[in-house]
Design a protein that fits this description.
The protein is an alpha+beta fold and 194 residues long. It contains 10 helices and 5 strands; from the N terminus they run αβααααβαβαββααα. The protein has one domain (13-191): Glutaredoxin.
Amino acid sequence: MLSLLLVVVALVAPVQLSQQPLTGGNALFEQGKTWDDFLAAADSRPEVWRGNAARSKPSKELVERLKGAAGDLRLLVVAVAACSDSVHTVPYVATLAKEAGVPLRIVDSTIGKNVMDAFKTPDGRGATATVALVKGDQIVAAWVERPVALQTWLLGPASSLTQSERMERKFGWYEWDRGESTMTELVALIERYK
């Protein structure tokens, strides 16, 4: 049973490694907005964006782990304000990056389309939020859309629920988790590129 669970988690993991790193990471990063500029311009769900930003408090352990692993990595986030996953993940990623001193920029899904096309969800979609790791001019890996536990549930048991029930429970899960799973998975990915 444990081996089956590990296979399922591997299949739905939000971490994606590109067969060939994408080039052009510097140009995309330079086109991005800072977190503060993105947050100020968020015109969809502004109260949720601000609320999640205000309650984002990464643990000292995660901040130190990110500081120790990041080196010259930068984070390029593909996100849109209207995305229900972005609003519940990006504020936590941005706060963690800021506290660890890791440069972060945010581009929209039009500018970041090639990144989303290279790093798909387990069910084959390009999605926001995509948090790409930029090393030099290459995008070497990405964390995609939502944490493993939530993705596993949405692709499995939640499929029998109505759309309304799925969204209500998804938002409840995000409220309960408060970005912890997203930050932990992202730091673990970055540690692989030490």
